[in-house]
Amino acid sequence: MELLCPAGNLASLKAAFRAGADAVYLGLKDDTNARSFAGLNFTPEQIKQATKLAHSQGRKVFLTLNTFPKPGEESRWYQAIDLAANIGMDALITADISLLDYASRRYPHLPLHLSVQASATNLAALDFYQQAFNIERAVLPRVLSIKQVKDLAKNSSVELEVFAFGSLCIMAEGRCHLSSYVTGQSPNTGGSCSPAKHVRWQEQGDKCLTRLNEVLIDTSGVNQQLGYPVVCKGRYIAEDQSQANYLLESPTSLNTLSLLPQLASAGIKSLKIEGRQRSPAYVEQVTRVWREAIDSFLNHPESFTEQARWNQVLAKVSEGQVTTLGAYERQWQ
Amino acid sequence: MKISLAPVSFCWDKATIEQFYQKAANSQVDTVYLGETVCSRRRLLKFNDYLELAQMLKSHGKKVVLSTMALIEAQSELSELKKYIDNGEFSIEANDMAAVQLARQAKVPFICGPTINNYNRASLDILQTMGMKRFVMPFELSKVWLNNVISQPAKANFEVEVMGHGYIPLAHSARCFTAKHFGLNKDNCETICQQYPKGILAQTQEQQDLLRLNGIQTQSASHIDLTDELMTMQKMGVDYFRISPSSIECLNIANELANKLTSPQLENELIMTTAELNKKLSPQACNGYWFGQAGLEQI
Question: Which pTM does this prediction carry?
């Protein structure tokens, strides 16, 4: 079972490997990936360096190319594929049909991982990408129950990767327009969800107003710890109520530590930690906990128990310091 | 250019649905998409009911397309999808790659719905070789984007449809937000979304209309309204102007627009009536996406 960790920069990549990651995923410093925050990501030269470093330690490095090319600008995405293939990266994580087609025809030796942005949640969709583009692996969106994940794993002819820990995306990834509806920038075409330039915190007496492109997403106490403002985790007033509530989801992170034995026995190939936008310290802490948990499980699968201190560390770095199993748990749905 | 009706995205009761399609059968709409696209727990109409409606519409001269689910998670949903693909008569609207896969295997012509991620011409051309006859532009894209895609490098070999009227589906989740609002979960939801034929309106804490909860789907609170762009779309080469039903009255808009297409000289008069109808149907309109802005903007 692979532990796959985020690398927003070289320091995070080193932290991830130091703490025991088997592989990292990273993106170029432009809109070819959906985390194009200022100060994040890698130049082509840094990607070469990162790949060399990973391989010298026997680890893997995947290129995240998870946005959809814009008409007239396709060449940048194709160049990124050329780069990944030419420097011997271990896989390309991508969702767009034209990119899968380009990569599979030109570089049949380059493993293709279907990005979560492709939103493949069922066997027929996985078959589509496998038959058409020979994908090796698919990353599952965070909308499936653990039973549905197991059913897929049993029948799928491609390896499966699931989100194990990190910010909880509650919508089918790749098909969510909430951010672009409010800000005009879409995660699918190169921005990120709730781009930083549209976020504004405004103090008003003892309240803090969170605004996204001037739309009021939430109101909280000035000393309250705030998560990153996304539309789906705001407080709104439903037409039949007078009070604001978390109508979709509250600020919370996904933590699947308790599902580790079930994910392992289902044959899940890779556990993905979310958070390329987070600090190297976050990457190191989370990776260390998951390394220990996975090793503990692999050494003694029958007597595996989650340790309280693991969850304490993970809760501390979670949004609102709260974690959930999200859609894996049917009751959440 | 012709007028099409998107599948009803809300959970209307059976009598209302039947009444709606009876009226649609006698409207000037060219093409009708129908089927449950949001939630497999909505079972007020079954596959055979939709097939009967499809036959009725066909007998009134309508072209009919069977629409399929946008988020397919369970094996049982795939089996249901297979029934749609194997209907033997009507083409289908694929709203998930599962439908593309099954349609291409069965050699059934398909239309890529707006929830398939089509962001560039190369991808559309590949889907066209797999049997795609038409695509509905993803909601968040713009007029400029569409112009680039359908005209370059050469004119496209597939038809184009643009959603021009109705609430915009913005996201799909595993969670049913309508059920959550009532302290229920998806497995014991009591199909409570039936009580909200336009979804549940959600406002910000400054009373700005923002979202509309429709079961597992989240829609825009504002009504997209591109009726003023009808002639521009026609000139661009858009084949279908899509109306997403938000009430039976939207068929009046459909008729107005169809008239305008056949008698452009009546344009001014018709713009007036359409505007009045729109005001009644949708006090708050948006058109930002079409002009390359945030979707909620009204330009």
Answer: 0.96
